[in-house]
Write a structure and sequence with these properties.
13 strands; 7-stranded parallel sheet; Rossmann fold; alpha/beta; 6-stranded parallel sheet; globular
């Protein structure tokens, strides 16, 4: 049996889903014999960092969804296709599909109508197509089984990694450019997707006048093609809030390395990679206690009530005024995040593909927390 990877993600900006696809592909190729790496089928508009992957095969006809639904199944008609980014060709036999979450069912109000309907159509077809379904947490596995009415034996959890940051060179100039000082600011990472719950942090900031020297740096932006922009938070007037917009990987790493903490009040996550990335860089984490986040963060994060700006404010006050607590969470976070490595993810994937394990498919999932 031969395999190929759906490389549509190489033509998209990197967010969490694309990061997983890129890192899984890279780690799997690194474990292969030189010259025998799994091929990646990519559209004509593939861009960095995807173009640095090995064994790329370009298929220039069409782009975007049309490329995935028409060009890709023709190109991959004799191979089993790996799809890492939620979507897959509807008219293709022999596939594995990674579904990161069921947010279009669990929190439909956060998405544009067009996006919501398209994803629900794709997901509703999965039980009939009978692919192997991959996902990123036990939480997402349970939601997939619930919404798609599939047996748990057909869904396997593949652990994610955080060590991609080893390849990122920190760009500390961003700290000076934004007028920040070490341990004198908090980072909030995520698009202005309502699920990220940015408004709760902005409401919490209004309760933090006693921390007047502390800045709150918001990294990310809005994508109205996906998210329901009517539900996203409006920019705040507070002088404590710094809107950084999109930053490079190097700039984000530097912000993590110098921050007093990351605030991650998300209402819904299939996994939640930013807290692990922050921990990996030595940044203490204040995180929501909802959905998959405790599964990913274990006992290495300080948890808050994501629905309570007051509780978020209290946790920020504790983290930013107690240097011993901050150092304790910094040390716990580093140790916890180091357990999440893409090499391990690749080992799981290859075991699934090539049957290099005697374990049933459903037992390949990792434990709930490495911490």
């Amino acid at each position: 049996m031969t395999f190929a990877i759906n490389g549509k993600f190489t033509s998209q900006p990197i967010t969490g889903v694309q990061r997983v696809a890129y890192e899984l592909t890279r780690a799997m190729q690194m474990r292969a014999t030189p010259g025998a790496e799994m091929e990646v089928y990519v559209p004509q508009d593939a861009m960095e960092p995807g173009t640095f992957l090995k064994q790329l095969r370009r298929f220039p006809w069409l782009r975007g969804t049309l490329w995935e639904q028409i060009t890709l199944p023709i190109a991959a008609r004799r191979t089993t296709l790996l799809n890492f980014c939620n979507t897959n060709p509807l008219f293709k036999r022999g596939q594995l599909v990674m579904v990161h979450d069921m947010a279009v069912y669990d929190m439909p109000q956060g998405f544009s109508k067009k996006f919501r309907l398209w994803y629900r159509l794709l997901f509703s077809m999965l039980p009939k197509m009978e692919p192997t379904i991959l996902t990123v947490s036990e939480f997402s596995k349970a939601r997939i089984c619930h919404h798609l009415k599939v047996d748990a034996s057909r869904v396997v959890v593949v652990p994610l990694g955080a060590d991609h940051l080893d390849r990122v060179q920190s760009s500390p100039a961003v700290v000076q450019r934004l007028g920040l000082v070490k341990d004198g600011y908090c980072v909030i990472v995520g698009s202005l997707d309502p699920r990220k719950n940015l408004q709760a942090v902005l409401d919490a900031v209004e309760r933090l006048a006693h921390l007047g020297d502390i800045k709150f740096v918001v990294v990310g932006g809005r994508n109205p093609r996906i998210f329901n922009s009517d539900k996203t938070a409006a920019p705040a007037e507070s002088k404590q809030v710094v809107w950084a917009g999109f930053v490079s990987d190097g700039e984000l790493k530097a912000l993590y390395e110098n921050a007093g903490c990351l605030i991650f009040p998300s209402l819904y996550e299939g996994f939640g990679l930013p807290p692990l990335e922050a921990m990996y860089c030595g940044c203490p984490v204040i995180a929501s206690s909802l959905t998959s986040i405790p599964e990913a963060c274990g006992n290495a994060a300080m948890y808050c009530d994501a629905h309570s700006p007051q509780d978020i404010a209290e946790k920020i006050t504790l983290m930013m005024t107690d240097s011993e607590a901050r150092q304790r969470y910094r040390s716990k976070g580093i140790a916890h995040a180091r357990e999440y490595r893409w090499e391990r993810s690749a080992e799981r994937m290859l075991a699934i593909l090539y049957g290099e394990t005697s374990e049933p498919l459903a037992e390949l999932a990792p434990s709930a927390s490495a911490g």
